[in-house]
Write a structure and sequence with these properties.
The chain has 345 residues and is α/β, with parallel strands linked by helices. It is built from 15 helices and 8 strands. The strands form 2 sheets. It has a 4-stranded parallel sheet, sandwiched between helices.
Length: 345
């Protein structure tokens, strides 16, 4: 009887945490627009898509063979983002999703050169998403910005075109530069000049690394691209000297737990290295990566880490504050966000 009562108290305690994580303000730094189309917005763009087709084509299974199997689902997303109206609908819908998860600051990202297949220019694409982001942030009371991505399989010319778009639009909701896609399949060679350009023009940079490849990929990325943040970066845990370097140079990791399991970085969540990296003192934040492909919210990720690693509000407070400190935004915005997180946690 006593054991049953204790169990009931524990369950009630857990339930309260679940509710609180949903209502608590949160920061998201790593989220791909074209990988986060809700069924509602897909229906608006193409009413013929059934729920089954949506689940099969847009949402990845719990376990893919590798990163490429996961990225195949992104194709459906950017195929539906080829007109200005489609871009507006998807961007605004993403802010709706963020507001429902009580995200108070979000940096969303996409590769503009994937959205010119039906005649839009890259500048039109960026302007449209920037304008929609402005509207979405005002409507839902969310701060943040948009990061433009080059992709590993892009040419040097395409990478340079992308970073110059960041330079042209920075300040108008465009806030940084990134490289994404198949880390294992393509070398960094085509993208060194683009990151040199970004650093010369003081453009904030993040870069995907340490996901499909090991610690050596993170070292290579840090040496050649000099980003202040790493997208994923979890395989840094394989190299103690790299972890020390990240700490000494205040490099922030944008960690996406469920995504890492789906892309087979780790076999099961219990073997994920986020807790180890956190305890080593590396700056990191918790992110969803792709709300639709991973079929998660940030609340879900918090609950998962609480369940598996016994994380609590202090862990998430620290992660949110680290995210704010490394966000691509003004000091005034950071100060306001820090106050809101401090009060909530």
């Amino acid at each position: 009887m006593l054991r049953m009562a204790a169990t009931e108290r524990l369950l009630k305690h857990k339930s309260n945490y679940l509710m609180n994580y949903r209502s608590a303000p949160k920061i998201e730094l790593h989220l791909h627009i074209d990988c986060s189309l809700s069924y509602d917005v897909v229906q608006k763009i193409d009413p013929s898509v059934s729920e089954k087709e949506y689940r099969d084509s847009f949402i990845a299974p719990p376990k893919c063979d590798n990163l490429n199997g996961y990225l195949e689902r992104a194709v459906k997303g950017y195929e539906m983002m080829q007109t200005q109206e489609q871009l507006r609908l998807v961007t605004l819908d993403l802010y709706r999703q963020l507001s429902e998860d009580n995200i108070i600051y979000a940096e969303i990202r996409f590769a503009p050169l994937l959205h010119i297949e039906k005649g839009l220019t890259a500048k039109q694409v960026v302007q449209t998403v920037s304008d929609a982001a402005e509207k979405g942030m005002k409507k839902y009371g969310i701060e943040g910005g948009v990061i433009l991505c080059t992709l590993r399989h892009f040419s040097e010319e395409q990478s340079m075109e992308t970073v110059k778009l960041v330079h042209e639009f920075i300040g108008s909701n465009i806030c940084g530069f990134d490289i994404a896609a198949d880390e294992a399949g393509f070398p960094i060679d085509n993208h060194v000049k683009a990151f040199e350009y970004a650093n010369e023009h003081n453009i904030p940079c993040t870069a995907h690394a340490g996901e499909a490849c090991g610690a050596e990929s993170v070292w290579e990325t840090l040496k050649n691209f000099k980003p202040s943040r790493i997208g994923h970066g979890v395989r840094s845990a394989e190299d103690e000297s790299l972890l020390n370097y990240l700490i000494e140079n205040d490099i922030h990791l944008e960690v996406c737990p469920t995504s890492n399991i789906q892309t087979n970085v780790y076999d099961v969540i219990e073997n994920h290295q986020i807790d180890y990296i956190y305890k080593k003192g590396v700056s990191l934040s918790v992110n969803t990566d792709s709300k639709t492909i991973s079929n998660v919210t940030l609340t879900h990720e918090y609950n998962l880490l609480e369940k598996v690693f016994m994380w609590n509000r202090e862990h998430f407070k620290k992660c949110n504050l680290e995210a704010i400190n490394h966000a691509f935004t003004s000091e005034d915005v950071k100060a306001d966000l820090i106050k809101r997180i401090e009060e909530a946690y």
